[in-house]
Amino acid sequence: MNNINEKVLRYFDAEVRAKDDVGMMVTGYALKFEKPTQIGSDKWGWIEKISRKAMETAKLNDVILSFNHSFSSVLSRTTNKSLVLSVDDVGLKFEAEIVDTSYGKDVFKLIKEGLINRMSFYVEVLKSEWVIDEKGKELDQRTITSFGRFYDIAAVTFPAYDDTIISARSDLVVIDADVRTHFEKREYERQIVELEKITGGTHEI
Questions:
Q1: 3-state SS string over 27-38?
Q2: Whole-angstrom distance, CA of residue 13 vs CA of residue 167
Q3: Contact criterion met (CB below 8 Å) for 152 and 63
Q4: Which of 37, 62, 84, 119 is deepest in the core (most CB within 10 A)?
Q5: Beta strands 25-32; 76-77: pairing state
Q6: Are the beta carbons of 130 and 145 closer than 8 angstroms?
Q7: Torsion (CA) 54, 166, 109, 77 in degrees, nearest 10
Q8: Burial class (CB in 10 A: 0-12, 13-18, 19+), 45
Q9: SS3 content of the chain, % helix, strand, coil (to 5)
């Protein structure tokens, strides 16, 4: 188990929808448990899922609802109870009353019309576990087992990993310290294997 402490941005196939005939209320899931999601490409990437126990350590006392992680335009917030978060067997559920501003009305209309229907979140990851395919035929698998502070949940245009989103928001991290360490070690191990093929010897890793 790896102990880390770094904020990470994640896009999962969660959902958001408008509540029928109840003001500017939206509801859905910011994340879903035990749902494998590929991060990166088939050539270089990993499969990631969230353990149910990850939420046991999560801090949800000050979380905002945003659109595409724009922190300058808050739609609702837990501190004034316009955003309510709860954990059930499916994942992290939310119910939010979007602020009555021109920006809020625009985002709500996009959600109500079904043009925006997916969610993302920005969170501090504390612990994770890896399963490695020693034969190298399958992507490595990472399970997040402990969250720290949640900063935001966001209604997003695209739920999948997207390099253009990351380059536009360099402060939002997708490849955290745990992932970097994991793949640096994996690359070192591959180099050792190739060296052994050349020299016919064995080297302790």
A1: EEEEEECCCCEE
A2: 21
A3: yes
A4: 119
A5: unpaired
A6: no
A7: 50
A8: middle
A9: 25, 40, 35
* Three-state SS letters, 97-134: ECCCCHHHHHHHHHHHCCCCCEEEEEEEEEEEEEECCC
Query: Which residue blocks in the chain are alpha helix, DSSP H?
Result: 102-112, 163-168, 177-199
Q: For residue 14, with 0-12 CB atoms within 10 Å meaning exposed, 13-18 middle and 19 or more buried, which class applies?
A: buried
Phi, psi (deg, nearest 5) at residue 120: -145, 170
Tens-place pLDDT, residues 74-131? 999 999 999 999 999 999 999 999 999 999 999 999 998 988 888 888 899 999 999 9
26 vs 12, 93, 145, 163, CA distance in Å? Answer: 18, 11, 28, 28
Please report where in the chains the tokens 């046991």 appear, as a residue: 56
Q: Quote the CA–CA distance of 94 and 150 in Å, as a whole number.
A: 13
Q: In a 10 Å sphere around its CB, with 0-12 CB exposed, 13-18 middle and 19+ buried, how is residue 28 labelled?
A: buried
**Strands lying side by side in the sheet with 91-97:** 15-18, 25-32, 91-97, 83-87
Question: For 204, what's the count of Cα atoms within 13 Å in the CB-facing half-sphere?
Answer: 0
pTM for this model (two decimals):
0.76
CB proximity list for 31: less than 8 A, separation 6 or greater: 10, 12, 14, 50, 91, 92, 119, 121
